[in-house]
Amino acid sequence: MKLVAVTACPTGIAHTYMAAARLEKVAKNFGHEIKVETQGAMGIENKLTENDIRQAQMAIFAVDIEVEGRERFNGVKVIQVPLQEALKNPEGIFSKIQR
Amino acid sequence: MTSGKDNSMQFAFLCPLASGLHARPASHLAEVANRFDCECVLTNLRNGLVANCKSVLGIIAADVRKGDRCSVLVSGPESSIATAALQRFVEETLPGCDVPLAPLDGSTQSDTLPRALRRAQVCGLFGTSLSRGIGQGKVVVLSRIALPRDVGPQIQVDVQIELEKVKDALEAVRERIGEKIKTCITPTGSAVLQAELAMAGDVSLRQKVEDEVRQGTSAPRAVIRAAEFFIDLLGHSENEYVRQRGADIEEICLQLIEELCGSLPESAIDLQEPSVVVAETIGPQQLLGIDRRWLNALILEQSATTSHAAILARSLGIPTLVGVRNARQLLTPGNKVLVDANRGFVVPELSTAVRRFYEREREIFKRRKLASVERGRNSGDPHRKTIEVGTNASSGEEINAAFENEADGIGLFRTEMIFLGRQEPPSEEEQAAIYAQAVRSANGKPVIIRTFDIGGDKKVPYLSLPKEDNPFLGYRGIRIYDQHRELLDSQIRAILRASAAGPVQIMAPMVACLEEFREFRAAVSRAGQNLSDREIPFLSDIKVGIMIEVPSVAFALDKFCEEVDFFSIGTNDLSQYFFAADRTNPGIASSFSVRHPAFLRFLRYVVDQIRSAGKWVGMCGEMAADPRNLPLLAGLGLDELSVPAAEVRELKQKIGQLSAEHSNSLLSRALACGAAAEVDQLLAAQSDSQPAPLLSEDLVLLESTSRTKEEVIQEMVDAFYIYNRTADRDAMEEALWAREAEYSTGLGHAFAIPHCKTDAVTANSICILRLQEPIEWDSIQGERVRMVVLLAMRSSDGTNSHMQVFSSLARRLDDEDFREHLLKFETPREITSYLNRQLGSAASLVSVNTSSFGERN
Questions:
Q1: How far is A51 from chain B (nearest CA, A)?
Q2: Residues from chain A contacting residue B806 (CB–CB below 8 Å)
């Protein structure tokens, strides 16, 4: 499955990046292809293009704050979880997607 | 200046003092006016208030603030010489006759207790910290001795007898204060007492009391009425400083009443054990009367931050809080309390938690001090010797402030102030006490005392110096010593006596030729002989040096170096003599910068010669204090820079970040320039010096024995404080906990990653702590934590390469192999070098901007 994701936490120093790393790793284990955009203290990195989003079957928002540019995801199926969920139980997120 | 009829003369001036014409400068001004047979009226042109210039109280009540324009009208037989003297005073002496009390940096004061104390449910009383430190002891409440309401029945009085009584009482009070001045050991103490002395001799005060007596009032009652009148008058001032002078009048009037009526309730308190004195307010003389061996802290209810008592407490280094409301009701006499004047509160009950917290605090202070010494030793380039940073001082206040800022010594202790503004020269005893106090404050660090630099522009009544057309090129500094040999000898004896208390060096001002120095050296031997004869101890091989202020010295340095022990370059005079440009003349001063290549070349010539002779050379002028010049001065190879107390800390930090290679190359490029502007451009193009590295072995804490999350965070924050990465531990701790409140920073896998974004840290940092025993961290999956990686980032720095390191560290923590490595390393060095390898090039770890100055060379 092709997936896109956004991670964002309030301080944007640590968890945003940790969650991104975790999602990338676990997605691979599930056999998915994923691109993760981080919205942290360094601004938006690894930005999702229009094309990325159009091709994705689903978007994961692992965020504790408002996603910047949310309108980009109009028309895409979005699953939103607290960022902690991506660290605590990333497998759970992907199982949900498969169902 | 304009002349009027009947010999009256008038001039105007702008008040240059930051705190206005308050008691101390006003007393100097009144003292000058009182020397002459004339009428002298000061008008504050801002508010129209008019004052008798011979009255300290009058001058104070005129509420002259910084920048106020005042006119002075002088009339009477001696009006012309009086005008000349007053004018000279306001132009030359006034700007330097008040050492402003450096404000305490309030950044660490808050209205909450540190977290560890809050958790232990400790309560505190808050106030404003006026003099830093921590002190504990038993509460001693000092009751206020107010002016008595009633001093006996109103009876028919004999005016003549009462007037006599007033006169005698005033004399007695003045005599008493005079005695106290003799035994006072701090320059600040003497200055405050001098101001009280002037007030006790004030013409307006005396007139007011006498007027009351003439109307049939008894002497004590007249004193009370006069006191009330003046306290009320000053109380209406818009200036806080002036309002607080009411306390000084009250103290004087109390003493007068004591003289007139016999004793008042006992004002002196007798301390027997470590104590914390609590009072509504306190008079300076009352404070000086307290036995300081037992006075560990002072708490005042009134928030008079500029009262003389406050200034004194600061100069004596007594931890002091003011504005602690209801302290006398809330603190029980005899109870042991602790005053934290670093943070600004009193803890009324010394519970176990409090004791533990402050034991830890003591330990942290000790380690921070050690770390700072260590940093000084290892700073910058290991192949370059460090530049010491000393301070210029002329009072105890400045010395204390300097050592608070970790100065390496006193590079220039000016002594002129001790000689100015008085009728008689200071005695050897008085001077010895002042110098010894300075030496003791320096606590083993070297103190360079410069003998008096008086002459030409500085008027001293007992020296009767001639009026000169060009005083800066005239009879001043070492040149007047020959004719005032006894004055010099007594000063040198006093300096030598202070050398028994700690390392002292002696320095002569304005030396132009070797002959002068030889005479000076002979005077030092003479003084030593005298002390030996009197069996008074002193340092027999005291170092004797000179200021380099006159260019002629530069061309005889080989000869000087054979006889002189050390040198200090006074750039203010040296540059004006070098360029033949009066530095007080704004029209030309700006054209002759100390950064002019010609002057830099001259300095290099001077320093090279002294260094090749193996002698010590420092710099104590304004050039040393301007941080822009630092790389140039480091390139010159100076041993020391002596700067105002407030600049010491910043300069030390900057020196710690210098690279020798960079300084040398910058200096050679500056020397190759043709004009001052080119040098300025060259310096402006340099970025600020290197910031502290993101990662340092100091911040890797292995084998921690902390038992809770709170203790871990406290331990890590303390490490930031010890290694100078935060000045405000409480704010940093709060920032970390604010983040924890969002959700726990535990990661699972025995790791936690607390972080904060706050300017309470002075450098972006990574701190790592490994626990001996795993602890609870409200972690994800409830797992216990053994490894804590703390990321601290300055909020005002914006996005930079450090953030990149943080984010890749965060990503890497998801990698099991990476975590395993961190858990097993045995030394901090292994951890830092592993992280440096893993997180990108070492360069990205040590600099904020990708263009660090190391790369620019």
A1: 26
A2: 13-14, 17, 41
**Which is the catalytic residue, given B15, B70, B253, B620?**
B620
Q: Which domain holds residue A6?
A: 2-98
User: How many domains does chain A divide into?
Assistant: 1
Domain count, chain B: 5
Distance from CA of A96 to the nearest CA of B (A): 20
Report the side by side order of strands in the sheet with A33-40: A43-45, A33-40, A2-8, A58-63, A78-81
Q: DSSP code of B19?
A: T
In this predicted structure, the answer to whether residue B100 has a pLDDT above a threshold of 50 is: no
CB B305 within 8 A of CB B102: no
- Best mutation target among A11, A29, A91 (most B Cβ atoms within 10 Å) is A11
Q: Which residue blocks in B585-694 are alpha helix, DSSP H?
A: 586-589, 597-612, 622-625, 630-636, 648-656, 660-671, 676-684
Q: B342 and B133 in contact (C-beta within 8 Å)?
A: yes
Q: Do B811 and A25 touch (CB under 8 A)?
A: no
The pLDDT-based confidence of B105 (bands split at 50, 70, 90) is: very low
Ranges of H-type helices in B236-351? 240-261, 284-288, 308-315, 327-330
- Put simply, the answer to whether B803 touches A88 (Cβ < 8 Å) is no
Find the largest Cα–Cα distance for chain A.
35
CA dihedral B74, B77, B80, B81 (to 10 degrees): -110
Among chain A residues, the shortest Cα distance to B756 is held by A11
Domain range holding B67? 2-96
pLDDT higher than 50, residue B853 = no
Q: Shortest CA distance to B658 belongs to which of B680, B636, B682? A: B636
Whether pLDDT at B5 is above 70: no
Q: Is residue B493 part of a domain?
A: yes
Q: Is B28 a catalytic residue?
A: no
Q: Are B725 and B809 part of one and the same domain?
A: yes
| Span B254-263, pLDDT tens digits | 888 888 887 6
Nearest CA in chain A to B813: A18
Query: Per mean pLDDT, which range of B41-45, B173-177, B313-317, B492-496 is the poorest?
Result: B313-317
List all residues 6 or more positions away from B650 whose beta carbon is below 8 Å from its beta carbon: B627
Test mutation, A7, A17, A38, chain B, max B CBs within 10 A: A17
- What is the CATH number for B672? 3.20.20.60
Contacts of A18 in chain B (CB under 8 A): 747, 753, 810-811, 813-814
Please name the member of A11, A21, A84 whose beta carbon is closest to the beta carbon of B780: A84
Q: Give the active site residue among A4, A5, A6, A9.
A: A9
Do B459 and B606 sit in the same domain of this protein? yes
Q: Work out the minimum CA distance from A10 to partner chain B, whole angstroms.
A: 8
The shortest C-alpha distance from B801 to chain A (Å) reads 9
Q: Do B594 and B540 form a contact (C-beta atoms < 8 A)?
A: no
Q: Extract the tokens encoding B23.
A: 């008691």
Q: Residues B106, B307: contact at Cβ < 8 Å?
A: no
Whether the predicted interface score ipTM is above 0.90: no
Distance CA B37, CA B55 (A): 14
Distance between CA atoms of residues B245 and B27, nearest Å: 12
Q: What is the pLDDT of residues B547-565, one digit of tens each?
A: 999 999 999 999 999 999 9
Mean pLDDT over the full length of chain B: 84
pLDDT exceeds cutoff 50 at B846: no
Average pLDDT, chain A: 91
What is the predicted pLDDT for the residue at B526?
Answer: 96
Nearest beta carbon to residue A88 from set B739, B780, B815 = B780
pLDDT of B150: 66
pLDDT at B222 over 80: yes
For residue B839, give both structure tokens: 């997180």
How many angstroms separate the CA atoms of B699 and B716, rounded? 8
Query: Tens digit of pLDDT for each residue in B789-800?
Result: 999 988 876 656
